[in-house]
Automatic annotation (TrEMBL):
SMART domains the UniProt entry points to: GGDEF
Catalyzed reactions per annotation: 2 GTP = 3',3'-c-di-GMP + 2 diphosphate
GO molecular function: diguanylate cyclase activity
Entry's transmembrane regions: none
Positions of the GGDEF domain: 217-346
Name assigned to this protein: diguanylate cyclase
Record-listed E.C. numbers: 2.7.7.65
Amino acid sequence: MARKIFLVHQNDHDLLRLHPLLEANGYTVEVVHEDAAFSQGEHPDFVLLPWSLYERGRLNLLFLEGIPAPAWIISRDRRILAQNKAAERDWQTKVGEYCFLAIHKGAALRGEYRKALKRGVILPGTRCYFCRADEALREGRVIRCEIRWRKRFFDVFWVPLGEDLYLHYLHDITPYREMERTLRFLAFHDPLTGAYNRRFFFEILSREIARANRRKETFSLLFFDLDHFKVVNDRFGHATGDRVLQEVARAVQSAIRKMDFLVRLGGDEFVVLLPTTSKDEARQVAERIQKAIRTVGERLAFPLSASFGVVEYAQGETPDTLLSRVDALAYRAKGLGRGRIENGEGA
């Protein structure tokens, strides 16, 4: 059986003179352009190419292995021509495969490309929906973007290496995105209960006041703290106290709307901001919350209640004056025997 040779040319007439000599010695010779040499899906016995191309290819491979992230050199028709060890290890890809099949298993194809693949047909121009390789080759510049793929985040690069070759590599940045999400959460939430924190409360309260003034609408504020909570900590320990706060926060969340804001100001003090809610409606919400808190106490086998203050926003109030007013009502509820809801004069 005749052995096959790819004779790679780059306007190299000396190398082309070898064609008849090789055929005379029993080789099957196919003359190909440099960019198509390894994208045929075939495996010749030998590849002959000019020294300049060999040196460039050698440098590309060295560069490829120097990238710690999975990286591939890919042809314009989406064939993998070379890859580094990280690509082979992490993605189990193989040289000669289509990148959209080897890397993403065909799952990132859309429309006609996916339908054709299901029939066993690969259409010209088939590519992943987020692929920007053609743009990088056309404009001769590096293109970078972030994609989300199967619940993970990747920083992706397409680097042109010529007219028909490009370097493609990606970093898994999921741990960094998860860290950012955690930091964003902690910036505005109480880490123990998951309720919003004091910092966020004053920000959202200022926005709600501006909205109410602009639209001539109203909103209400509930302030409550747990009755005899110090006894829970002293008798059962702070771990149990923390659990009570967590259970109470969950119970309150289930008793309010998604558009409402539960805030832990500190210790056992909580605020609920109720947009587009009158004082009478807010009192009904407080009654639901009180019932939910008592249910938590029954489940944990000790009595639990809260003292509430309820106020409706009055035009011209500031965040500080509004909070001061509702805090005073909650303090009044405690003074009148605890487990009460106070909403001002005539309550």
